[in-house]
Design brief:
With 355 residues, the chain is an alpha/beta fold. It is 33% helix and 17% strand. The strands form three sheets. It has a six-stranded parallel sheet with strand order 4-3-2-5-6-7, sandwiched between helices.
């Protein structure tokens, strides 16, 4: 369990909450991977405040493996949220939603926390039947209509601090942010391939606008004094291969060779992580591994690496950060980050790592 100092998240507590009367709590945070890492401090705070309560979690299929076997989680409600969008399986989707609703109601939750703030998650909170349904007043898609208590989350702070505002309302107190990871087993095959010292590269991204060109990751790897290890999902293995092909023999790829939990020792063993705005960035920050995060249109104040000792590399542009529904056609914010400029920033910060 790793921690970083807690930033101030002052808010008002709900009155009359007896920790001994809170028996069942539901966390609603189906995705994405980085957001689930951000929610681990919420899980820890709730467990400390309500040590005898049953804590369940609604999580998306595929990401559920990251939370499996967690000692603080009694049950995972796994939903196929991506499949729910497909019209051809509407009948199956309706059946799954009906079964989820029935199952949640049967649990008789005392508290439900909606950390996603979407119509789907708001409906799940309502379906839980919890007497206390907490969410943010600025949430999207009408989800606040389904809350019994709406909290001002403040979009100008980091997601971790914002999430913890909900636990503060329940009287949770902590002087630090804890990331309790589920038990994991390192992959022996992957461990054998890792250099003794290495820089970790994560060149994928959930959105094309957040992705620095893979060729530039490769050129950067060729300039670094340590070998690089490239990680990605199996679906993005071609991106990792591009990095390797442009690294002049300085990088190896383990793309698709590790499950989510098996990434923990790989990330934790790195000298530092150079990454786009993506899930492994948040894992590294949680593990106190120095992060160099390449940001384009996103706002690093909200979703950058949390804690101290990290560096955000972002082109200062009038149009950034960008909250447009559709990204622009040129993505200057990423395209104008040159390999030389990124290398200069990293090398100026990293003498201690590369000695």
């Amino acid at each position: 369990m790793k921690h970083v100092p807690l930033k101030s998240v002052a808010t008002h507590q709900l009155k009359g909450i007896d920790p001994h009367q809170i028996q069942k709590i539901l966390i609603i945070k189906p995705s994405a991977f980085g957001d689930i890492v951000h929610t681990l401090p919420v899980l820890s705070a709730l467990h400390d405040r309500f040590p005898h309560a049953q804590i369940d979690w609604v999580v998306g299929h595929g990401l559920h493996t990251f939370l499996e076997g967690h000692s603080m989680i009694h049950r995972l409600w796994v939903i196929k949220k991506d499949e729910w969008k497909k019209l051809r399986r509407l009948k199956d989707t309706l059946t799954e939603i009906r079964e989820l609703t029935t199952g949640l109601r049967a649990e008789k939750y005392d508290v439900a926390l909606d950390l996603s703030g979407l119509l789907r998650s708001g409906l799940i909170a309502f379906a839980s039947g919890a007497a206390i349904r907490l969410g943010f007043e600025e949430s999207d898609e009408g989800s606040p209509l389904f809350y019994t208590h709406k909290i001002k989350g403040d979009m100008g702070i980091h997601a971790v601090d914002r999430y913890l505002k909900l636990t503060a309302v329940l009287g949770c107190e902590s002087d630090r942010v804890l990331y309790p990871f589920a038990p994991y087993n390192p992959s022996p095959e992957v461990c054998k391939t890792l250099p003794e010292s290495y820089v970790l590269l994560s060149p994928s991204a959930g959105k094309p606008a957040n992705q620095w060109p893979a060729e530039r990751f490769g050129a950067l790897a060729a300039m670094l004094p340590l070998p690089s290890v490239v990680i990605s999902s199996a679906a993005d293995a071609h991106i990792a291969d591009t990095v390797v092909n442009h690294s002049k023999g300085k990088a190896i790829s383990i793309a698709g060779q590790t499950a989510l939990k098996a990434l923990i020792p790989v990330v934790g063993g790195a000298t530092c992580l150079i990454t786009n705005d993506t899930g492994p960035m948040h894992m590294a920050a949680a593990l106190n591994i120095p992060v160099f995060a390449l940001f384009g249109p996103a706002n690093p104040i909200r979703t950058g690496p949390y804690g101290v000792g990290h560096t955000v590399i972002q082109k200062p542009l009038d149009c950034s950060p960008c909250y447009a529904w559709k990204p622009c056609s040129h993505w200057r914010c990423m395209q104008e980050l040159t390999v030389d400029s990124v290398f200069q920033i990293i090398s100026s910060q990293c003498q201690i790592f590369f000695k």
